[in-house]
Structures are given as structure tokens and as C-alpha cells.
């Protein structure tokens, strides 16, 4: 018996084709069947298998994504970071094209300084921050770096001071890496450079980064 199964995947359907070559014992035959798949029409508040799959794929690509099963704020932030990584601009919407790229696990953060061991890289060109161990990416977050009048400094630094909680100016869970420049949470942390020079994180991401970064860890900042 010679059986061939061909699969074609679209966000809405899975087409399965099974064929059997004609033999002396059996006639040849072919059967095709379409199976309804996951609905890609999702948005904030959506639940179900497609949302769980999206969150699963974001985690697999190392975006900070506490899997809740709900298309929530954290999912939107991770989707936005994924769009930035791919050079697709800024958007928290999981459109069909984005879902397709996620399912194919398209894209990867390119580590620039693997020799720094456990370190953080601020890729200002993509407005992303990555926690890295050697050449292995641990987690990726969206950031808002310095606006044109107060740009974030470029270069290679080390965390020299950390401060949990809120500072008087609204900085939240801060890790300082040179002078008054820090990685910290702040509200707002918009999807464009808006800070006074720091690398702002959304408030919901700040504690995760703070607990991963340690005093003395390298911080590499580049365009």
C-alpha cells in the first residue's frame, strides 16, 4: 500500500488529501476533506484555543508573556514587541498575518554581545530590551527610550545601583547603568521614544526585568 497525505494550513481551514495508488488488489482512490480550524478574528478580551496558541508561540519566541488564556494587556504588549522585532511598526493587534507569522515562529532577536554572558541588550532601533545569557535570549520586552531632545546614551555599561518600588519622579523598579540612566517601569511607556533618556518599560513588565537583572550585569545599548 502506498499512501500519501498532503496538508495545507490556513488560519481558517486545514485541507487533508489522502491518496492510494492503484494496485492489483485495490483500485486507486483519492479523498479530500476540509476541516474548520481556529478563528483568527480576535481582539482584547478574546479567549479560547487561538488565544492560548498565540500566547504559547509568543513564549516560544521569548517574549514576556504570562499565559492567562485571555487576550489581555500583556498579550497586546507582547504582540507589539513582536511587530517591532519584525519591523512591522507598532501595533497590539493580532491580525491574521501576525498570527500566521507566529505559528511559523518567524523572527528572532539577534544577540550582539554574546561574550557578555548574562546581560541586557537595549536595541533602540527596534525599541526592544532583551534579557540574554551568552547567545541565548531569555525574554524580550517593548521599551520607550529617550526622545530626540533627551536621547538614551549608547554604549556598554553595567548595572551599578538598583531601587525597588517607586521613586519620587514615578520611576518604578529601577536598575541604573550609568549616571541617572536606568531601566525602569513608567506610566506611560508609549510605543515611541518618549523618555528623558532612560529605557522605560510598561509598569506590568518592570518587576520581571528587575528580578532578572543583578548589580554588575552588563547593559549594552545600541541602535
Task: Report what the structure shows.
The chain is α+β, with helices and mostly antiparallel strands and 223 residues long. 20% of the residues lie in helices and 32% in strands. The chain contains 4 helices and 12 strands; from the N terminus they run E-E-E-H-H-H-E-E-E-E-E-E-E-E-H-E. Strands 6-5-4-12-7 form a 5-stranded mixed beta sheet. The longest helix has 14 residues. The radius of gyration is 22 Å and the shape is elongated. The relative contact order is 0.13. The N terminus is likely disordered.
List keywords for this structure.
3 domains; 223 residues; disordered N terminus; alpha+beta; elongated; 4 helices; four-stranded mixed beta sheet; five-stranded mixed beta sheet; L,D-transpeptidase catalytic domain-like
**Mean model confidence by pLDDT:** 89
> How far is the first residue's CA from the last residue's CA?
58 Å
Helix/strand/pairing class, anyone? alpha+beta
- Main sheet specs: 5 strands, mixed
Which strand order do you get reading across the main beta sheet? 6-5-4-12-7
What is the global morphology? elongated
Assembly status? single chain
In CATH terms, the superfamily of the largest domain is L,D-transpeptidase catalytic domain-like
Q: Got a strand count?
A: 12
Give the domain tally: 3
Order of helices and strands: EEEHHHEEEEEEEEHE
CATH class of the largest domain: Mainly Beta
Name of the CATH architecture of the largest domain: Beta Barrel
- The fraction of residues in strands falls at 25-35%
Predict the CATH topology of the largest domain.
L,D-transpeptidase catalytic domain-like
Radius of gyration: 22 Å
Total helical elements: 4
Low-confidence stretches: 1-13
